[in-house]
Amino acid sequence: MISSSKITVLVENTAGGRGLLGEHGVSFLIEANNSRILFDTGQGMTLIHNAEVLGISLNNLDAIALSHGHYDHSGGLPHLLPLCQNTDLYLHPDATQSKYSPRGDIGFTLDEATLKSSFRRVIKTEKPTKIIEGVYLTGTIPRNHPLEDTGGSFWHNKKHDDVDLILDDQALYLETEKGLVVVLGCAHAGVINTLDYISQITNQQEIYAVIGGMHLLLASRERVMATVTTLKKYRIQLLGANHCTGLGAIVLLWQELKSIDCRDCRVGTILAINN
Known about the structure:
Elements: E1 4-11, E2 27-32, E3 35-39, H1 47-53, E4 63-65, H2 71-74, H3 77-80, E5 88-91, E6 100-101, E7 104-105, H4 112-118, E8 121-124, E9 129-132, E10 135-137, E11 172-176, E12 179-184, H5 191-202, E13 207-213, H6 221-233, E14 238-242, H7 247-256, E15 261-262, E16 270-274
Parallel strand pairs: 3-4, 4-5, 5-8, 12-13, 13-14, 14-15
Antiparallel strand pairs: 1-2, 1-16, 2-3, 6-7, 9-10, 10-11, 11-12
Helix pairs in contact: 6-7
């Protein structure tokens, strides 16, 4: 159980302070129980810069965890390799598979040999996995809700004939004294599926906060409203939707969830989760 934690947005599509830069991607620095965990790394163009502007050192990270293998979440990893000899890397076994969208190659750029030689340990997270006490990754998330899909067209090859279900998509969650705090990369598995699975594996019926990308950019109103219903079901008190959620979906979420604390989680945002 974590008594206090801090989540700093280092990479996001928009920036919120002097000298900070935005890019299509996301990265969160999670500080809890005297440990520092980087969840996702953005594309790699702004991570180091934004950390320096914010006065944050990326040396001596205890762990780096990836939500999935897409470039806007894993692209910053090569820039961190010189700093990672004492850092553990957590990623799903499928994160390094070839990945394509209508825009072309959107996949992982590092090979297994480079990962093994650069990090203290490389931990594959197909199942729920503990990073430190109180901080966990979901591993593969079951896909059960009929309205949820990956949020776009994705394949494993250039021919676009091998559909990528993005089974490497996973979320990070913290068990805090205020309740569960869920951090999403893109939620390609679906927000509803993700929260339902976290509720199942933790045996918790309430979730304090949900932060990150929800990939609702192309979602129907019906799907967004189903997401609202699920957020209400789990009695969410803090919502920080960003990155791939989409402006229209964020507006609808804020309109429907007026009674809770909805945050604009751009670069530079700090979320303190204290008892």
